[in-house]
Amino acid sequence: MVDHTTVLIAGAGPAGLVLANLLRAEGIATLIVERATREQVQTRARAGFLGPNSARVLAEHGLGAGMLHKGRSHGVCAFRGEDGEFELDYAALGRGEVHTVYPQQDLVTDLIAEYLSRGGEIRFGATVTGVDSGTATIRYRDEQGAGVATGRFLAGCDGSNGATRQAIPAGLGQRHAQDHGVSWLAVLAEAPQSMAAVTYAIHDDGFAGHMARSPEVTRYYLQVPPGDDPESWTDERIWAALDTRMRTDEFGALKPGPITERRIVRLRSEVVDPIQHDRLFLVGDAASLISPSAAKGANLAIMEAEVLASALISALHRDDERPLAAYSRTCLPRVWRAQEFSRWMIDLLHTQDDDFHRALRRARLHSLRDCRAHQNFFAEHYVGI
């Protein structure tokens, strides 16, 4: 069986679903092929911080009802270290912008429902086994067996380990990769937030982070040795480490609860350049994997989806492929700015085990606490791309 469509999309994460919804709103036929089941896609706990540009895209295109109803504005973050704690009201700095806290699994659930209501089609449980960028064709296998889907254009939104990235010839352009030498234990706890703000704790034992996801669920991060086994971190060990690194004896107790998820996240960066070849265009993590240190991944994906949707609409409705030809040139400068700030955050939150680098980290924190120009830099880059 061969499925024919206008824009074929691999991957039903934020990148693919935003792109598909924007195209469906313009009457463009689309088909999404996704390797996970619908339940798996709608329960994957990932990012939760939407920047102002992402919130704008969702609201302007009728995709933000859930976000507007249940999302929470967040404009303050805090830093804890050996010299105490300070808060940055980044909503009052820079351009005066805030984040909207809305769990990614809730956003994905909203986007799937909206896409299906607009007449879109998704093949869940379909693993891509081959990609042809020249003919915008993918081969896949699902519970019915082997299948083929083809379109005029193909959008690769299937992540950094997906099949579409591999379809761009290795000799075309450059592939940049950086392992930052840092790993985090990402934890979800059925527990209310312990602090009003996102909190970054800097400690000689390693970084710890606190990010509320909802009134009942909180995301925590703990820096751990690369290659550590998440199952070796019992609930008791996790809360003990958080108590130490969050300095609860100085700032007050955490509100603990059952740990529902624990996984290791290696802080890595990857950028494909260019992010297009023939009829194939990469979006989101397929185009550029970014460390979670600055909450840019989903926001880059939504930005790229909007750029690509506009270019495809121009090509299909106005027979003008110039914006498509410029897709890489349009997106990659912003990708690199996001990567640079992500690396800046890694250097701020972690250090090498020597006195010189500890002193540098301390100086960075002092500057961020005391220097208004430094604070404005942080605010503009923290919420923007």
Automatic annotation (TrEMBL):
SUPFAM superfamilies given in the database record: FAD-linked reductases, C-terminal domain, FAD/NAD(P)-binding domain
Signal peptide, first to last residue: none
Please give the InterPro entries that the UniProt record associates with this protein.
FAD-bd, FAD/NAD-bd_sf, PheA/TfdB_FAD_monoxygenase
In this chain the FAD-binding domain maps to 5-341
Q: Which keywords fit this entry according to its UniProt record? A: Monooxygenase, Oxidoreductase
Which Pfam families did the record assign? Answer: FAD_binding_3 (PF01494)
A GO molecular function annotation here is: monooxygenase activity
**Which PANTHER family does the annotation name?**
3-(3-HYDROXY-PHENYL)PROPIONATE/3-HYDROXYCINNAMIC ACID HYDROXYLASE (PTHR43476), FAD-DEPENDENT MONOOXYGENASE (PTHR43476:SF5)
Name of the protein described by the UniProt record: p-hydroxybenzoate 3-monooxygenase
